[in-house]
Structure formats: structure tokens, C-alpha cells
Design a protein that fits this description.
The chain is mainly alpha-helical and 128 residues long. 48% of the residues lie in helices and 5% in strands. It is elongated, with a radius of gyration of 23 Å.
């Protein structure tokens, strides 16, 4: 009535089948950072590079909420100790002029579609 051998064999086949993609790709799948165009006009960003790589979207969301809801238009950097306008177009795109070679190149490599351009004008061919 109980086919212990068949059940254990079936479970083993199931586990092997379900985990195959993971152990088959060990050591092969590696993220390669895209070569981004560095800003020509600025020597440093509003925050350090590591922070901006990891947290820029959260920062932009925070800026949006603070500007739209609270009317707070200035950002005080803990990295440069300067004050910046909380603006995608006036602050970020002032230095990162070429959206295609900076923003889009990185977002495409990680398969992310930011919604910045749902509200902001896409700067294609427009020099800020």
C-alpha cells in the first residue's frame, strides 16, 4: 500500500529538478557594472558614490514628497556640506547631462523602468 521507494525517488527527482537552475549556474551569473559617462562639470555628487548607487531612487522619492507635500526645496548634503535644490532636472541632470549614457544605460542593465519621466519632461536632445 505504501510505496516508500517510489515516494522517496519522486521527492529526490523533484528536489533535483527544482534546484537545478541554482546549482547549474553557480559561478557563472555575475553582474557586470555598465560603463557610465562621468559628469564633466562636477567633481562630486550630492552624496558619495556608494550611497547614490544604492539609494538614489529612495532619495528622489523622498525629495519628491518633501517638495510637493511640504514645500521643502533645499537638500543639505552630509557629504559635501553644501545645499542643493531638490530637483531632478536642476540638480541631477545638471551634471549628468546625457540621460541615455548615464541613467538609461544603468537602468537597462538591471532591467528597471523608472517612473521619473511620467511627470518630468524626458530630456532627449535637450541640454539642461
Amino acid at each position: 500500500m505504501y510505496d516508500k521507494g517510489k515516494i522517496l525517488t519522486g521527492l529526490a527527482v523533484f528536489v533535483v529538478f527544482m534546484t537545478y537552475p541554482f546549482w547549474n549556474n553557480i559561478g557563472r551569473a555575475a553582474y557586470v557594472k555598465p560603463e557610465l559617462e562621468k559628469p564633466r562639470m562636477a567633481k562630486e555628487c550630492v552624496e558619495n558614490v556608494e550611497y547614490m548607487r544604492a539609494e538614489h531612487m529612495a532619495m528622489l522619492n523622498e525629495w519628491r514628497d518633501e517638495v510637493v507635500r511640504n514645500g521643502m526645496h533645499e537638500y543639505h548634503s552630509s557629504f559635501t556640506h553644501q545645499t542643493y535644490a531638490k530637483s531632478l532636472t536642476k540638480t541631477c541632470l545638471k551634471c549628468h547631462e546625457n540621460k541615455d549614457k548615464f541613467c538609461d544605460k544603468c537602468h537597462t542593465s538591471v532591467a528597471v523602468s523608472p517612473y521619473c519621466w511620467d511627470c518630468h519632461v524626458d530630456p532627449k536632445g535637450v541640454k539642461q
